[in-house]
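Notebook entry, structure prediction.
Reason for the run: the old model in the group folder had no record of what sequence produced it. Starting over properly, with the input documented here first.
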Amino acid sequence: MKKKYNPSRWIIGILLLLIISAGIYAYSLIFKPFSLSETAYIYIDKQKNYEEVVEQLRDKAGLPSEKIFNLLAERMNYPNKIKTGRYAITNGMTMPDAIRLLRSGNQTPVDITFNNMRTRENLAGRISQQLMMDSVTLLNALNDTVTPGIYGFNEFTFIAMFIPNTYEVYWDTGINNLLDRMKSEYDAFWNETRRNRAEKIGLTPVEVSTLASIVEEEATYADEYPVVAGLYLNRIRKGMRLEADPTVKFAVGDISLRRILYKHLEVESPYNTYKNSGLPPGPIRIPSIRAIEATLSPEKHSYLFMCAKDDLSGRHNFAVTHAEHARNAARYQKALNEKGIY
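New structure, fully documented this time:
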């Protein structure tokens, strides 16, 4: 007997095929991987704005489907569990993978670097550019009179705790954690070997950093660092004032001065080494590791005086006697006059 045609069975079959196809398509979208030529980093600040997170995923990582991501995020309760930090979205990662990563708070560290920092403002600005940290808040901590004591420094020496280098930290690290880390790095840097070298030249680690800061400001070329360090140590041992021009510039508040005049030498400041004996109360900049190492290994010589060369190259003439120094100074002053530098 011939079976009777039943159109409803065909309709049900087609519907099932459509449902299965839709499911396969949705599944493929859900698990469609990010296609990236390089790792994309998502930064989430303390505002924890979900829309901004999605925008970064779209613009930086090429989010496979914003609609599906929002549905998944809602299902996985991510909008209520957003955590600050820097997160790495890598090639092949799926949207569920990304949500689990972002929700877990398992962020990727960032390398922060600070070199050639002259002032605390420079340091605060440089660090805040690399971390989720406000420069004003950090600067206030650096200038605070109480915080330095927690780490064994004072308001003048606190800057010596920051050893210029590259450090791996979390992007959302707080100021206290950062300061704790810098103190830990300082202690590691000033190991027993370096402390013994400092003691050998009659200085404490902070005093080495202070002298190194003057050496680095005085010498344009690093090969002169050990010579300049030896000169200043000679003066200290003989009870002579350092009479270092960079300390005058620091005291005046103008590091761009090309010519030090008598009025500058008269400024009242503990940093003016023309008026005060010994080292100033703290570094006049954050000295580089190279300057610190040169100060710890000063060149042995009899120089007591130095003057910039009259070719204005940035190099120096060194002298043992004041008479020789006076001749060098006269040539330099003449060169400045001829160039119209006042």
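Summary: Strands lie at 40-44, 85-89, 110-113, 166-169, 305-308, 316-319.
The old model has been moved to the deprecated folder.
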